[in-house]
Amino acid sequence: MLKRIKADFHIHTCLSPCADLEMSPQNIASQAKTENIDLLGICDHNSAENVSALKKAANKFKIQVLPGIEVTTQEEIHILALFNKTSSAFELQEIIYQNLPGENDEETFGMQVVVNEKGEVLHFNKHLLIGATSLSLEKTVHLIHSLDGLAIAAHIDRPTFSIISQLGFIPDSIEIDALEISPLTSISEAKKRYPSKLPMVCFSDSHFLKEIGNGTTFFYIETSSIQEIKKAFLNQEGRKIVH
């Protein structure tokens, strides 16, 4: 039986240097519950180190979490990588760390806090998470798919760090699964502005608690899995997305 799932796949935690320090697992899960969100995607910049804590915190609210990373490619394009398994996100993270130069400057970019499910500080990530990797767009999407994940081009309507802002177009040769539109643009307007055969979704790109749920997409799927979401993107077997 298909279920109606309210999803926000683009949530940052206090690990992202540009996110508010109040973006702890407990606070995120509590706010998501207030917004009646069923499924979260945790996509910090170039890291998945707070995913496990978020899964534990969200479980208390009966909210499911997809492990993810917002990867910054060599071209400075943001790509959301989403997986079924946390181990897959960690595999991608290891490759990212090997291809991510620089060390974080907390005074310039902000703290990168790794926490447990209670929000207690475990350590501070030293990688330059706000930076770009040396992985090309094509290589990044290939890696995500090789780990059985979904690759979504992030906030394509924004003037920076999007596939449109950086390339000026969406290459047919890159097998992106979907296009994310920010809450600043309606899906109907986005379809006119960026004609594409790819499905379009809207998520919040939350860096602050009050932003959670500002952008959501409804999925009609059987289970909250990557396989079912992909079917919804392709309108297969009755699965679909609704805005």
Would you kindly provide a written description of the structure presented here, covering whatever features stand out?
The protein is α/β, with parallel strands linked by helices. The chain has a single domain, classed as Alpha-Beta Barrel (TIM Barrel). The chain is 27% helix and 23% strand. It contains eight helices and eleven strands. It has helices spanning 25-34, 51-59, 86-98, 106-109, 137-146, 163-167, 187-193, 226-233; strands at 3-11, 39-45, 64-72, 78-82, 113-115, 121-124, 150-153, 178-181, 200-202, 217-221, 240-242. A nine-stranded mixed sheet has the order 9-8-7-4-3-2-1-10-11, sandwiched between helices. α1 links the parallel β1 and β2. α1 (25-34) crosses α2 (51-59). The two termini are 20 Å apart. The model has no long low-confidence stretch (mean pLDDT 97).
Gist of the model:
This protein has helices at residues 25-34, 51-59, 86-98, 106-109, 137-146, 163-167, 187-193, 226-233, and strands at residues 3-11, 39-45, 64-72, 78-82, 113-115, 121-124, 150-153, 178-181, 200-202, 217-221, 240-242. The chain has 243 residues and is α/β, with parallel strands linked by helices. It has a 9-stranded mixed beta sheet, sandwiched between helices. A two-stranded antiparallel ribbon has the order 5-6.
Comma- or semicolon-separated keywords:
alpha/beta, globular, single chain, 9-stranded mixed sheet, 243 residues, TIM Barrel, 8 helices, two-stranded antiparallel ribbon
